[in-house]
Amino acid sequence: MTDILVAYGIPLAIIVAQSLALIVAILLVTAYVLLADRKIWAAVQLRRGPNVVGAFGLLQSFADLLKFVFKEVVVPAGSNKGVFLIAPLVTVTLALSGWAVIPLDAKMVISDINVGILYIFAISSLGVYGVIMAGWASNSKYPFLSALRAAAQMVSYEVSIGFVIVCVLMTAGTLNLSEIVESQKTIWYVIPHLPMFVIFFVSALAETNRPPFDLVEAESELVAGFMVEYSSTTYMMFMLGEYVSILLMCAMTTILFLGGWLPPVDIAPFNWIPGVVWFLIKVFAVFFMFAMVKAFVPRYRYDQLMRLGWKVFLPISLFWVVLTAGVLVGFDLV
Amino acid sequence: MIATAIAFYLFAAITVAAGFMVIAARNPVHSVLFLILAFFNAAALFVLMGAEFLALILVIVYVGAVAVLFLFVVMMLDVDFSELRQGFLQYLPVGALVGIILLIELLLVVGAWVISPEAAGIAAAPAPAIADVDNTRALGQIIYTKYVYLFQAAGLILLVAMIGAIVLTLRHKPNVKRQVIANQVARKREDAVELKKVEPGQGL
Fold first, then answer.
1. Which residues of A touch B181 (CB under 8 A)?
2. Cβ contact, residue pair B69, A115, below 8 Å
3. Axis crossing angle, helix A194-207 with helix A141-172, rounded to the nearest 10
4. What is the mean pLDDT of chain A?
5. Pick from A17, A144, B45, B203: most CB atoms within 10 A?
6. What is the pTM of this model?
7. In this predicted structure, what is the pLDDT of residue A233?
8. Min CA distance, B176 vs chain A (Å)?
9. Which one of B27, B75, B77, B135 makes the best mutation probe of the A interface by having the most chain A beta carbons within 10 Å?
């Protein structure tokens, strides 16, 4: 019996401790990223943004958390209760579980699996279930329309994200995220794959329902979309899941195109800074772009969104896959 | 090994239970959600067997795409399934017949390897040793080298199916206004706006 405890108990305890540490860190970062999002948005519109709770509003997210948690959870009478309550849990769990394979630095990853990039792709493609389940279980018209929109939108943009990922992993020759980062030592993939970087960024906006593609929760048409019937903690879980998956997409952009934890140039002052700091700087830089897009790009119309996904991104990324494969084989770079 | 065994029985039990709930659930949307749970646990079983590539492809293709569209359709249909179940038993003979035929076919396929060992020889490609390559690379080597023509043929069959589905559903309606983005972009100020000098009291 003690053998089993030693053989499985210790590794299990280590994994649990690592996961808890990562989750706490992500939640803290998310709290400040949410504040940063509001502050950047406010600054673009020449407003102050949240500035009352704590110095410069630094404690605003925690005040919001307390407010959400202490309110009552209202479950509509006509709703499908089980699915209604599972939906926010699914959203948060999936958003957090994607982080298990993200390498923050060399060797600094909870699970360094061979197919890390496929795992992330699978997890992000499941994100749509939280929205669909919430929209259906609410048994109300706006959430239902929103769920239908979400299903179509997320499936459409996943296709081009898939092709972008194929381009990068062909160039890197591996599906392991750490090895993909290592293979960018000579050049970050944003330079040879610049069009794919743009497509990935825009698709990431659509995949996470960020403006200008937030038709799922377009307040002028659908009020708050699938979140209409949700209140207090359940609503907060949707918001949390949304921001954690935005951060996940920023981390993915960093790993696939911006060289992950690698410094921009591998010379003295730059490589003194630890890799995790570089990683965070890059993630926040990508998030800044996310926030700026939200602040100044008007919302797309639904048919324009579909056209962009299927008629523009899909052919370009498909062409780029063929081109990448041709260049790699033709110049014998494999 | 005990942890693997526990994990196997856990995932297998959930898969079977979810599979049962797919046909037992009263609400069709719940059925689809249980189906997704079954897919997910089947993927976990693949991981236990060391086939992590297949596991993730199963999640991406079936859970991430097929089941979403399935859920999409089932959600939109407002079918009262308890009413449909009224005459459920009268289809039992047909259903049982189909089930028995499928069972016999499955037994034949699996049994063929036992009955004639040379059948396995035809099917088997020299699989690279697990220690040498990870299973993504191994699958790629087998599909794109040894079985490349069969793979291309499968692709062509899928293409034909896709074209067939489009031909069956595409209808050309006259008088449908379509948005041509190129025309909109090519439009100039001179085509759209004309400035005229209007004299007071004269009109145009």
1. 307
2. no
3. 150
4. 86
5. A144
6. 0.83
7. 87
8. 15
9. B75
